[in-house]
Design goal:
The complex is a heterodimer.
Chain A (H helix, E strand, L loop, with lengths): L3 E5 L3 H13 L3 E5 L2 H10 L5 E5 L7 H10 L8 E6 L3 H10 L3 E5 L3 H12 L1
Parallel strand pairs in A: 1-2, 1-3, 3-4, 4-5
Helix pairs in contact in A: 2-3
Chain B lengths: L6 H30 L3 H20 L3 H18 L7 H22 L10 H9 L3 H9 L23 E9 L1 H5 L4 H9 L3 E7 L17 E8 L3 H7 L7 E9 L4 H6 L7 H19 L3 H26 L13 H28 L4 H26 E3 L1 H18 L3 E6 L4 E3 H22 L3 H6 L6 E10 L2 E8 L6 H10 L11 H6 L22 H10 L3 E7 L3 E9 L4 E9 L2 E6 L3 E5 L6 E4 L3 E6 L2 E7 H4 L13 E6 L5 E6 L1 E9 L3 H4 L6 E6 L5 E5 L1 H6 L6 H9 L1
Parallel strand pairs in B: 6-8, 13-22, 17-19
Antiparallel strand pairs in B: 1-3, 1-4, 2-3, 5-7, 8-9, 9-11, 10-11, 12-13, 12-20, 14-18, 15-16, 16-17, 18-19, 21-22
Classes of the chains: A alpha/beta, B alpha+beta.
Chain lengths: 122, 723
């Protein structure tokens, strides 16, 4: 079975890079451009196996997205990986408190990305 | 998206495109705030833009870009969290930093390195905005609070021939499940590292009626024998170590029999653990439905959805800043569509003409239908053209940076005011306007605006104003660059033109004629060529590039009050306004932008010059007289000019020539068809078009035609110009 991954990032570059790495590894990729869009994509498609989200985004940021997902019974068990930079330990912690499952350090190494997904979604 | 090319290269391209958008957004945001003060939304947007550039730059290993954007981002972060006071000086530094960032991006795009020393000043300024301790904190702290047993740190590295043996105690807390982590997956991951024996402790699982579906009851003891060192084993628990009791201890394996000895008698396999975990999950899901807690959850969700909506509404009412959704389409596709619509317009014109010619009964009803068709095709054409249209905003934003740079370099105080930024024009026109506009803006600041001292002495405010205005007028875009500086010094201009032998010392010139001397090739007013405006490019080059776009430029100036340049450009390069003329029963189109006037020559106006050349006297000035038919080889003999029409054209170098054609048919808009793409390039012919009657008409390239070696040799032409 192909796993569905929802990637949420306001940067086209990052979305493209995530997509390239994920498709290569055999995942189906859904994309959204910010938190609000992410929630809409969630609502309009099959529940993804993993959500990969950026933190700094317009409209609704990563923290807001995570909180909204965790509050929704349909999605509360979906693993969420946040994209953070090395030095953002405070953000990592805040994301974790909001309900994030794990994190991926940007710029990401495709191998690490896939291993992170495997760790949270199998 | 292009999938045939190297995907990384395509993403790299996307990155640089995106950088450009983000730089524009950052700059616009900073400018807005330096005018109107701090705005949380805007500072966040600027932060995100810089942060995004940093993220992408990291992916492409553009280290300088990463380092600089990191500094910039840190300063912005400090501002949005209120630690950095939003003073005007701060915005000034940030604007300069955004300029440097643009330079770094541009350099990275072409694979060049910028010398770090060249922007060390800006880098230092932006760094100085952040308190020392803050910037340190951000860099240094990267803690991961794990409970790792470091009893024997010396055995972390595996020794050759011996394997590491880890004993791991793993007891998840409730939060681990709440964060959607899954112990089974962690155990599976461990099993990939080496030989694993997992023992699941399920003694804590209560009876079903007392089981809390949200709670964690299971824990595991794991024995792992592997070649891998401790840090990698710890990494497996990266996401869960905060939400579990975890102890990892390492012993170097001595004897394999030890495993039996330490393993618990009733050890479960990983499959057992899996089952146990799954069953607890299943129970959890089942009972969730009936608990009060889940009702609360639903309420919370509805509430948050409500909030989300009202937030969205607020955003929409913030109209101007909201982003419209867009799609990205390759230019090729749009161009193909434009071409097809061009064909459609031609076809429709042909059809109308044929129906009119056929002149059969009932034709009027058909003609009415055709009128409607014409209306529709025009609308389609306009809509398709609009796809290629882009607002001039990014172009104008780039100009604000140039104003700042030049003002800084010359010690002047200048403000740029822009209007009509949302005016749209064909993308190619926008791109090709950048250079001439840059030059004119530089000129306005460097030559137009006076130094603050002189301005004050003349009763003006010390800060000069440069205005950049775009507007649509009569199917064209008009761009006006004006300044409130000293205006053109006509005495100086005139003297300079006399010194350079561009005009006769006794020439009687009107003010406007003197102003227009600026456009002559090789003209420069500044006594000393400053390294800002004087980059070997004069106003003549500006004029030429505007003309190449099918545009016109004009100048007006008032001494002491400033000067204004006005550009008028076509909205698209796909259609052209032309004069349709006949030459030896052939139809040609002369671009309207190069035509100055048309006249009926008298025999006495045309004089022979040399063996073949002729010149024509127009108001006491001799201009080369070019017989188009002869030039293109339709006719060899000399034709009496009185039987034709002379079209006075202006060439790129500012000179004038008279073109002799047989007659003028019409003036109309024509769709440009490339000749190179369909046939080959012909000197003197710019392109082709198809007329309403279905015939192909060639569009004359006025410059190429005049310079085309033909029967009238260029030597003669040179002589004629000299005369």
């Amino acid at each position: 079975m192909k796993y569905n991954v929802l990637t949420i990032d306001d940067s086209r570059t990052m979305r493209d890079m995530l997509k390239m790495a994920l498709v290569e590894a055999g995942y189906n990729v859904l994309q959204a451009v910010d938190g609000i869009d992410g929630l809409q994509v969630l609502a309009s498609s099959e529940v993804p196996h993993v959500i990969v989200t950026d933190i700094n985004m317009p409209k609704l940021d990563g923290f807001g997205l995570i909180e909204a997902v965790r509050k929704d019974n349909r999605y509360r068990s979906v693993p969420i990986l946040v994209l953070t930079t090395e030095s953002d330990s405070a953000k990592k912690l805040r994301a974790k408190q909001a309900g994030a499952t794990g994190w991926i350090v940007k710029p990401f190494d495709p191998v690490k990305l896939i291993s992170a997904i495997r760790k949270v979604a199998g | 998206m292009d999938t045939t090319a190297d995907p990384m290269a395509a993403i790299r391209q996307t990155f640089f495109q995106e950088c450009e958008e983000q730089l524009a957004e950052a700059e616009a945001g900073l400018l807005a705030m330096s005018d109107a003060g701090l705005d949380d939304e805007i500072v966040n947007a600027v932060f995100r833009a810089v942060h995004s550039i940093k993220g992408g730059a990291g992916a492409f290993k553009l280290d300088r870009l990463v380092a600089f954007s990191h500094k910039f981002e840190t300063a912005l972060d400090s501002m949005r969290s209120g630690r950095l006071e939003p003073k005007p000086e701060v915005f000034k530094i940030m604007l300069r930093a955004s300029g440097t960032l643009a330079d770094l991006v541009a350099a990275a795009n072409i694979g060049k390195d910028i010398d770090e020393a060249s922007y060390a000043g800006v880098a230092e300024d932006i760094r100085s905005l952040v308190h020392e301790d803050e910037s340190q904190v951000d860099e240094v702290i990267d803690f991961s609070p794990t409970m790792i047993d470091f009893d024997e740190p010396d055995v972390v590295l595996p020794l050759a021939g011996s394997r590491n043996r880890f004993s791991i105690e793993f007891a998840p807390r409730d939060e681990l499940y709440a964060h959607a982590n899954e112990p089974v997956l962690v155990l599976k991951e461990l099993s990939l590292l080496g030989d694993v024996i997992v023992d699941c402790h399920c003694a804590n699982v209560p009876l079903l009626d007392r089981l809390n579906p949200e709670a964690s009851y299971l824990s595991w003891s794991i024995h792992l024998e592997t070649d891998i060192d401790q840090s990698e084993v710890t990494e497996v628990f990266e996401f869960v170590s905060d939400d579990a009791q975890l102890e990892i201890s390492c012993n170097r394996a001595a004897q394999s029999s030890d495993i039996e000895a330490t393993a618990l008698p009733d050890c479960s396999t990983i499959e057992n653990a899996h089952e146990a975990a799954n069953s607890s999950e299943a129970l959890g899901e089942h009972s969730e439905l009936s608990t009060d807690k889940s009702d609360n959850l639903i309420d919370a969700v509805t509430l948050s959805a409500g909030l989300g909506e009202s937030k969205g509404g607020a955003q929409n009412s913030g109209a101007a800043s909201s982003i419209q959704s867009t799609i990205r389409v390759e230019f090729d596709r749009v161009d193909r569509l434009i071409n097809l619509v061009g064909e459609l317009v031609i076809n429709q014109a042909m059809l109308s003409q044929r129906v009119a010619e056929a002149n059969f009964a009932g034709a009027s009803a058909i003609l009415m239908g055709l009128d409607e068709l014409e209306q529709l095709t025009r609308e389609i054409q306009e809509s398709v053209m609009a796809i290629r249209a882009q607002p001039v905003k990014p172009l104008f934003q780039r100009m604000s940076r140039i104003v700042r740079d030049v003002a800084d370099a010359t010690g002047k105080q200048v403000r740029l005011k822009t209007e009509g930024e949302s005016t749209e024009v064909d993308k190619t026109v926008v791109e090709r306007l950048a250079e001439p506009l840059t030059h004119m803006i530089r000129n306005a600041v460097d030559h137009g605006i006076e130094s603050p001292e002189i301005r004050i002495a003349n009763g003006k405010p010390p800060e000069g104003l440069v205005k950049l205005i775009a507007a649509h007028r009569a199917g064209r875009i008009v761009i006006e660059i004006s300044d409130d500086g000293a205006g053109i010094n006509r005495l100086k201009v005139r003297q300079s033109a006399i010194d350079k032998k561009l005009i006769a010392p006794d020439a009687a010139l009107s003010d406007s004629e003197i102003d227009n001397l600026l456009f002559l090739p090789g003209f420069s007013t500044a006594g000393t060529i400053s390294n800002i405006s004087g980059r070997g490019v004069g106003m003549d080059v500006v004029k030429r590039s505007i003309q190449a776009l099918g545009g016109r430029i004009s100048i007006s100036s008032r001494p002491g009050q400033g000067s204004a340049f006005s550009l008028s450009l076509p909205l698209t390069l796909a259609v052209l306004d032309g004069m349709v003329v006949s030459v030896c029963d052939q139809t040609f189109v002369v671009p309207l932008t190069s035509i100055v006037e048309t006249l009926k020559p008298k025999g006495s106006d045309v004089h022979a010059l040399g063996a073949e050349g002729r010149v024509m006297a127009i108001r006491n000035v001799f201009v080369p007289f070019v017989d188009v038919a002869k030039k293109l080889g339709f006719r060899t003999g000399r034709r009496d000019p009185q039987n034709g029409v002379a079209i006075l054209v202006e060439t790129e170098d500012g000179g004038r020539s008279a073109l002799l054609v047989d007659s003028i048919q019409d003036q109309r808009q024509v769709v440009i068809k490339s000749l190179e793409a369909n046939y080959r390039s012909i000197p003197g012919i710019a392109a082709a078009t198809i007329l309403g009657d279905g015939r192909v008409a060639l569009i004359l390239d006025v410059n190429g035609l005049i310079n085309r070696p033909g029967t009238e040799s260029s030597v003669d032409l040179q002589m004629a110009i000299g005369g």
